[in-house]
Amino acid sequence: MKAHVLDGKAFAAKLRVTIAGHVAALHQAQGIVPGLAVVLVGEDPASQVYVRSKGKMTREVGMQSFEHRLPDTTSEADLLALIAQLNADPAVHGILVQLPLPGHLNSDLVINSIDPAKDVDGFHISNVGLLGTGQKAMVPCTPLGCLMLLRDHHGSLAGKHAVVIGRSNIVGKPMAQLLLGDSCTVTIAHSRTADLAAMVRQADIVVAAVGRAQMVPGDWIKPGATVVDVGINRIATDDGGTRLVGDVDYDSCAAVAGAIAPVPGGVGPMTIACLLANTVTACCRANGLAEPAGLTV
Ligand SMILES: Nc1nc(=O)c2c([nH]1)NC[C@@H]1CN(c3ccc(C(=O)N[C@@H](CCC(=O)O)C(=O)O)cc3)C=[N+]21
Fold first, then answer.
1. Is the pLDDT of residue 1 over 80?
2. What ipTM is given for this predicted complex?
3. In a domain, 280, yes or no
4. Which residue in 119, 121, 204, 229 is the catalytic one?
5. One GO term of the cellular component aspect (predicted)?
6. Which atom of ligand 1 is nearest to the CA of 99?
7. Which residues are annotated as a binding site for NADP(+)?
8. At residue 46, does pLDDT exceed 90?
């Protein structure tokens, strides 16, 4: 059997068309243009690629993109002052501070200084608490994108056993909350889980978000299970180049899984599309307008 491919690239492209429609309608009916501010501190090359890609897609759907690039020597006070300015700017509906931040900056402090209503990453403690208690929140983009792919493929997720590998605040924990919200039985596994292979073999849904290249082999996958690969790892190739791989070993997993989201072309494009979706949602909430269906949970 060869797994069905969960085509995040195509899904995200359709979602961006839908978002562009909502952006055009907001502009026509209300004269409002949703705005997203992205803040990048330092010169990490991978981060620069993502920030460029986010800016391009933000403009493509008709929204305003504000990019702030700061040197890696930026003080915490200066970064907090910029965030205060963006919090107060009515043209800015969403604020994303690219992570990881340079080591001298306290990322918890920085993230919690963002107005929760503009926190399109969903990382502010207030949004984390709202999500955890089933209230209306800004939902983290990567888990939201994974959930959209899973719902699209399965319809209802109720009663399925989901094993989330990874316990980060940005993927593992919010992913588990979303799956619980959809009535899955959820296990959060991690590097210290005893007999991880046996645990993963019980899963109807596997979400791999550990940050270790190709660490999940096909013989950990229950035949027919759905595999969502969140990993983004650049590895060396034999010809001296590099290539992007996920946290699962694609070929061996695709041979046993019922469905699998590949890297690249799976969760990555969904993350950016969900960032745009969150910005539209934040813009509608800020203006007291009904938010479009289908952009969040
Ligand atoms: N505050 C914050 N929010 C984030 O959402 C955030 C962040 N910081 N820091 C970095 C990570 C990483 N991230 C990705 C987004 C899209 C792709 C993506 O589109 N990947 C393409 C391939 C891109 C390539 O070729 O490099 C794909 O998987 O098909 C990857 C990674 C968002 N992040």
1. no
2. 0.98
3. no
4. 121
5. cytosol
6. 8
7. 166-168, 232
8. no
